[in-house]
Amino acid sequence: MSTAATGTDHIGLRRVLGPAHVWALGVGIVLVGEFMGWNFTIDNGGPWAALVACFVSGLLYTCVAMIDSEVTSTVAAAGGQYTQAKHIVGPLMAFNVGLYLVLAYTMLEAADAIVVGDLVKSMAADFGGASPEEADKLARPFVTLSVMVLALLNYRGVFMTLSVNIVITAFAFFAILLLLLNVGPWSGTHLLQHEAFFSNNSLPYGWLGVLASLQFGMWYYLGIEGTCQSAEEVRSPGRAIPLGTMTGMLTLVIAAVITWYVCTGLIPWEYLGIAATPMYDAGKLTGSWNLQVLMWVGSAFAALASANGCINDASRAWFSMGRDRYLPAWFGAVHPTYHTPYRAIVFLVPIACAFGLTGLHPDPGPDHAEPDHHLLDSGGSLGLHLYADQHDPLSPHVAPGQHRPWLCPPLPPDTDADAGRSVCLDFCRGIAGLWSQFAGHHGLLYCDFGLVCGAPLPVRTPG
Fold first, then answer.
1. How distant is the alpha carbon of residue 150 from its chain centre?
2. What is the DSSP string of 166-214?
3. Is the N-terminal amide bond of 412 cis, ω within 30° of 0?
4. What is the full DSSP assignment across 107-176?
5. Is 463 helix (H, G, I), strand (E, B) or coil?
6. Could you count the other beta carbons within 10 Å of the beta carbon of residue 3?
7. What is the average pLDDT across 71-89?
8. Whole-model pTM above 0.85?
9. Which tens digit of pLDDT belongs to each residue from 164-182?
10. CB 100 within 8 A of CB 317
11. What is the distance between the alpha carbons of residues 411 and 455, in angstroms, rounded to a whole number?
């Protein structure tokens, strides 16, 4: 028998998570971008443009992470940005943000399942000598299987789910470190060829290429804001959310720099910019069978960790909307034994499987790498980020006396000018972002640029 959202009863989730689980949720969703996706920045602008995009995107996402940490630790409920919109702006904004969240995370989950299938195809071709047709048939069951197994894990409890994410995310991160240790200048292998690869056309399209590279530069960090969804299930939101999120950002910056350094030294940038699985390809080019297997396992674990976190986040947003009657109250139910939003989890599984199976291509590559999924995913993310700049400056005005356990102060502090400035910036950024959305994912970066103006170094409030 389940606990349903009836009457005036408040349906809540159990607080069992710590900062490590928050770290695993945020980094787990994002780390797959270090194994694949980021390298298309090189195709757009060259290797140096990719490094600039890495740091510019890192600055913007650091601001996003600080702002989300402050507001989430204050409004500590499941739903993340949906709950923030409900308390700060109103029901219409909350409904739209909730749909954006579910759309973004469900499509990313499907894309992660496709990555698992593509990796199985690569393994079948490299180790088993299978033909492309045989490898494609072998990969399809793994797309559905990965989604269903991870959904079952989420069904059984959030503590176990994110504990598994700690293990597989940490393994994927240490796989990147081990690759660096085995091919770095100190290893004596002389495998890195930066001077040879960078001698000609390392910035082939000039500064216009740097701007174009921002399209995929966000792949290094996109999804770290998903830590907000765990607010209702952490034991101490004022400590766990900021600590887990900012530690996750530090982890991602380290992984991004190492990934860029190793891949640009092992793989000619002309090929690297169009590679579907650059880290796995880098492992193959080392000539070491052990490193090749390590990079395959690391890539698979990163994709599974991302899908696992996306199931968690999408189900929390859907559950919260059901609990608040924005959707049928039937979805706002908590399992009596496992204390999870099990109906929301089960409902979203066939949607992710359907998009995963329809998006599996026989020959993965940048020209046809799940365009429908990326369009829907980035469309949801664009709407979410457009909203962020509107509500953050307004939050002190809505609840001026509410205590904030962790504070990222705006500039200027708590003034009407700050809210007016954000609205003006958001209008300009929204026009530019919507235009660029048709060509790619620049819209998210236009949305995030304004956050830099209102997010200096965070401080902890006394008391």
1. 17
2. HHHHHHHHHHHHHHHHHHSGGGT-----HHHHTSS-SSTTHHHHHHHHH
3. yes
4. HHHHHHHHHHHHHHHHHHHHHS---HHHHHHHHHHHHHHHHHHHHHHHHH-HHHHHHHHHHHHHHHHHHH
5. coil
6. 14
7. 83
8. no
9. 999 999 999 999 999 999 9
10. no
11. 7
